[in-house]
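Sample intake — Tyrosine recombinase XerD
Collected from: Fuerstiella marisgermanici
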Amino acid sequence: MSSHSAPAPKSRKYLNGQPWKKAAGQNCPRESVEDHLDAEYAVVDLSRDPPAESLVKATIREMRIRFYQPNTIKAYRSALVSFLRWHRGRLDQITKEDIREYLDLLVTGGASSSHVSVTLSALRTTFDKFCLLRCTVGLVTPRKPKRLPVVLSQQEVQRLISSATSFRDKLLISVLYATGLRVSEVARLRWADLDFDRRQVRVEGGKGRKDRYVMLAEHLIPLLRQVWRFTKGEGYLFPAEGKRTTDRHLSPRTIERAVEKARTLSGITKHATPHSMRHSFATHLIEAGTDIRFIQKLLGHTNLETTSLYAKVATTVTSNVGSPFDKMHDQQPGPANATPQGPSSPSVGTMKIVVEDVPDAAGSRRVYLGISHGLHHIPLPGITVCQPRPGWINLQIPPVESWQAALAQLTAAERSRIAQPEFYEVLKTQIARRMPRETG
């Protein structure tokens, strides 16, 4: 018969001779709270009075580590450097009053509310967020004026596309309007982002580092197919100009210049920019009855309030309400609008212009244009003109790529003048003078 040892008694804890166990629940002892505002967690210890250059370098490095956008880093660096040049005291003694005095200096000097907001954000990020100085607590971001966006009509968008002097510029403006993308998003578009089968465009790394999809317009596909033959569908949709730039995209500033040139040639007086194409895209969708939440998704807006701004400029509501001024002048035709005349243009050399007397079935007339070069004229074919109503002419100019053979015979100075908007303004004025009187 085997014997079993008795189980050992459970060990008990005693405190002052009394049994004790660790408290549980809300009475349980907690670990000490870690203070993340302690000076040892600061990116730069301002108590050591570091030089301004060290603070700027440490701030830029920290922003890169936290994946701030390159444009944000550039703007914050410029604002921080400007403030450090103004402030002459110790960095750890910067007070809220110093920040207020500097911002007041900017406002007095005529700085915009956006510039003051960026400056305050840069100082708050550097001194409060990175250096734990708490010198901007309580300072409120300046109010911004609530301006309505510039919206073009569909006819004006068509005029803008028709006035572009190169096929690339026509495609640029078409993509801006057809997709509603931001100018930076259009510049970074790759051929791999286009899904022709599903009729979608993938926007990768948009504002806020968010991806989204937008529609690919049916009438945009033939234009893209023409470019596909030259690029073989590789790299960026709009590569940078010049040689050895296959891995670089077109800069947003170049796109802005292309839109500005087309706007000047079209005679549109509105201050249209590439972003105006995005405004027009959203407004026209609202006027067509598209759900505003779907538009919000296409535009990549975080807040619906941002998208609702376009409902204020849409004509779906105001079109049913007539102005009392119109009722007063009911059934009275207004004066015909004259062709807008800009400032005097510089000389572009000698041109020979002949306008066809008889229009075609569509009402367009062919225009013969010859540039004087020595003893003969070099023709630039493909120009047509029509007069939709008295006082207005619509000039159709082919892409500049179709003139490459003719332009190669001109000098560099002559080619440079033809590339300027002033050349087309002079051309439009001279053609208007040669239009037959019976069509007016």
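Post-analysis note: The longest strand covers residues 364-373.
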